[in-house]
Amino acid sequence: MSKLAYEVAIVGSGLAGIAAACKLAEYGVKVVVMDENIHIGGQFLRRCPTTRKASFTDVMDLMRKKGFKLITLAKEKNVAIMNRTKVLAISDQNELLVEDNEKKISTIRPQIILLATGARERFLPFKGWTLPGVFSTGAIQSLVKSFGVLPSREIFVGGSGPFLFTVAWELLQQRGRVMSIIEQKHLMDSLPPSGLLFFNASRFLQSACQIARIVFARVPVRYATKIVEARGRYRLEQVVTSKVDRLGRAVPGTEKIYSSEALAVGHGFTPNIELAQVAGCEIESDTTKGGWVVRVDQTLETSVENVFAAGEITGIGGAPKSLNEGNIAALSILRRLGKEVEKSVFSRHQKKRERLLCFARYFNSLHMSSDEIIKAIPDETLICRCENVTIKEINMAIQQGHNTLGALRKALRIGMGNCQGRICTPIVRDLIHIHAKATKEEDNEILPASTRIPVKPLAIKSLLD
Amino acid sequence: MLPHTADTVIIGGGVIGASIAYYLSKKKVRAVLLEQGELVSGTSSACGGLIFLQSKKTGAHLALALESKKRFAGLNEELGAEIEYRNEGGLIIVEKEEELQSIDCHIAREKKLGLEVSFLDRQEARELEPCLSENFVAAVHCPLDGQVNPIYLSLAFLEAAKRSGVKVFPLTRVTDIGLGEGRVESVITCRGKIATPIIINAAGVNAPDVGKMVKTKIPIIPRRGQVVVTETGPQLLKRGLISAKYLEVKQAAGLGEAQEAGTSAEQTMSGNFLLGATREFVGFDKRTTWKAMKTIVYRATQLIPGLKDLHIIRTFAGLRPYTPDGLPILGKVTGIDGLIIAAGHEGDGICLAPITGELIADLVTEGRTDFELGDFALDRFEEKRDGRLED
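The joint structure predicted for all components is written out below.
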């Protein structure tokens, strides 16, 4: 067990983590960045191994460029980088338990920890969503961006939010054929308030470029349409869709059946709060931030002293917010370490953050599923894939009074499987919320179930070595 | 809405309170159960499911466990819910030569009380459980030992009780107990007051807080037990097992620091392994530590090498209600009419739940029990039978 003398340990090497690392290294702070993936950069900065030509949209992608620049900078500034490294636990003395790329377990005891663990996708289950051939949009993106692999020549993309368009665009860039984009929201509900357009012009311009490419490729985009069912004997063969009204209710008689071998689905994102929970950080529940998020103050410090959080885990907001918060967290940490930081720099970033948070609220609203859509999920649909629990069983248990995540876990084993509730809990939270509204119970904050070490499954073999 | 009156109020929504509620409901008592948090959210949701007779102290403790065990067989059907009860037997694994002597004495005492136990050499034990390694000396087998899902058991008791008219209120904290002329009159909660002639303190590790409300000292201390959960694996282990060391630490009942609390292992119906154990006095801290995780896993793999192919998916810790002599506190509280206590089972709560519920229900309705509860009385801890705290 080695104890290396790092002043700051950063968990997660996405934009927030890497931006903070660079800023800290500039001031001569000894910093280590840990990430469980093979390549650093997180979800946003995946490198494409193929040498496809840069398109006009790529040129527009300033944020990605900035990100790759930061990665190069971090290496130049001698930031210690540990890839394929899992942080399994954080003790009450802020000591990290780490499994490195050789599966060796060790501890790191920095003065300050920055959590930048990012987000994962949210799913809205439908009949047949567990069939082989149904992918998450994130998984498709990872296949395409990191490995240059297409799951199938022809792909359906469905769900809600602008990420669908990004994934469709990436598929097209890789010469995939996007059969259709199925967007649950009505077009009118997806348009941004004009106030946002001004401050986020480059972002909207980039989206516009992606949409232009999609239109150019003659990909049909169907708004106000949801995926009803994925059909197939052993794997996906057909996708069934239906129109929905403004409340999200299916319009009878509008069902359509398409043949397809691959379907990419996504319904937005939810923060990876598990490590923060284990560290003892307070969690708050806020739908406009993407669900459960880590509570932070103005300086991005969590409720635990010397543990900071930045990026998606404080609220889903996309790349610019992560970059901005990475910088703010770094400045706050520098202050904590007693370094001189110009006040004006700090407040400039703070102002920018406020604007980005406004955008984030709009961004998250694009992913929200209405109660009606959730209520329309058929009884036999699996919600907890690890323990085979259906939505009917969950709704019945909630009605019987098991109306918290902890109680449902006990009654139905939801979240007791290998994923420890990562996939199912966001939707279970929605079900509890809908029930509370229907019964007009006092609307208590719905808290996540407790998380315990190890935060990620740990091979007993590597623990014993 | 809380009722204004009740025949009996049970404080505590763990397995003990739930069992008492169930047995009271069978006797048509209009009982109310109050739980400060969520139902089954304390010790009963953070423990293993071993029903071990071999691990009980020889004497009244074992006699109580034997009675309890008899009730388990019919519970699945009686409660109308799956509690995952199995009666596959259990093993005590003797890891060191020097432990043999005390184990021999233990067996002799158990046999005297009529418990069916047999001494197995390593080979015989490995024939019973082929997953065992060579790293032990001998084993003791008891065919009466079994396993249950503790959470399902507690929930099934509560559901059955509710069906028979017991009112159950989670998130209802008891703030005070109203006394009049040496007897209980009411329970005051954060959601209102209930007038009642009988109060049962089944609050487990929180029983001392309830005791304070009537100036009675209850010597229960929380003792943390950590458990490691693996992913579901192939069926390797049929029986529950504990090491001789585990038994020794359990029965020593001293206040010593016991990081080394021996090994316990069981495989649940779902296929996950639950591995233990620690016995630590750290107040009400329910966090788990990776140091304990490592120790537990190291010791368990010494006995069951097949575990090495699995992943740990979770750990949890429960606060066991420890008493100085390792026995639960059961019965009427001297000096306060209508006050009954059923708490302090430490690691035996699951095993002793059915008999505890039945005896306490008898105490409520008949005022007496067929089973002699003298050894479990609260005043065994008092030198001069003066249970009152000086304020």
